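Notes from the 1:1 (GR / supervisor)

We went over the backlog. Supervisor wanted to see one worked example end to end before approving the batch request, so GR pasted a single chain during the call. The sequence is below; no edits were made to it. Supervisor asked that the structure be written out right there so they could see what the output format looks like.
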Amino acid sequence: MAKRIQLEVTTPEGIKLQAEVDEVTLPSVHGEFGVLPEHRPLLAGLRSGIVSFVDGKQVQVLAIGPGFARVAEDRVSILTVHFMKKDEVDPVIARKDLKEMEAELSALGESAPEEERLRLLAAVRWAAVRLELYGDPPPPTMLLAHEVPLMGHEDYTGLDAEPSGQEPVI
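Structure output shown during the call:
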């Protein structure tokens, strides 16, 4: 019998998914990566995005928010802020959330606190991921260079920290 992977997704509300699967694809902060049985141990920062997994011949997808993934001993453990299955997506609410958060983000002045900008960017990304999961992704948006670190693509290790000594935004 072929080896399988134990997949578990946990949010602050508890365990949301437990499944035995053949492979998993995850949205890390540095791009997507796949996990097969006997994968080397790994700890990765995750961005809001789509997780796909294969069970037999069936591919399933779900949306997660930012978080972390631990891969070890044929187990993938995901710790995330948000979790949603495709059949739970209400596209009307997701589009409304996206429109409202983008409007709030546009209305922010340059002197707005970075934490507020980060909160709004995270909300925009979560709404967009829900629409992507539903099958109706919003058009891509352009980001200014200073906004990119705020999209959940931070270097959680601090290895890419600015030489000025400024800590990365988490």
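Supervisor's comment: The longest strand covers residues 14-21.
Batch request approved.
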